[in-house]
Amino acid sequence: MPENSALHPTPPPTGEEQPRSIRLTDPRALRAYAHPLRLTLVGLLRSNGPFTATRAAALTGESVASCSYHLRILAKYGLVEEAPGGRGRQKPWRATAQYTEWPEYSEDPTVAEAADALSAAVAERYFERFTRAMENRRAVPKEWREAEQLGDSLLHLTPRELTDLGKRIEELLRPYEERESDRSLRPEGARPVSIMRIAYLDQDVPTDEKE
Fold this sequence. Notes:
With about 210 residues, this protein is mostly helical.
């Protein structure tokens, strides 16, 4: 299933156990989340929240009214919620989970269409950020440039093998997730690193499979 952090995992609220992920299956929620500003707001709340609509406007360059409106839409579908304290426009918002999941396949064409549109919106956002990182790469220290990774592999797999590979990669990454919410677990020199996982059936490569 697609799993998206809106590019930023979030520490759980103090004293509370936050769900790791929220799963969207309502096509209305899927379409709502695909909006670029809403993806941005969820990502910012997961990295810098809680914050108010006023702060959201400062971070995004959008108006306070626009941010307030989109935060309310996100709250409608359970992606954000009001945090304790504040009043009116000064009320803070927080993300409700670290990650967002949605169906990779559905027999319902409405759900399938909305899920595919969300996946496309997220992919576009991923590559916008990646392109920006490459454009600014000269400012990255030498040791980080040497450690960064860019490449691809063409593998011949069955659906079950690809699913298993994804689970194994997730198991490798999971121990590092705790460092986001518990700063004491971060070794000296640790910096935020975005890791994208993309695997798709490459229909441009010819095969000898019989139809």
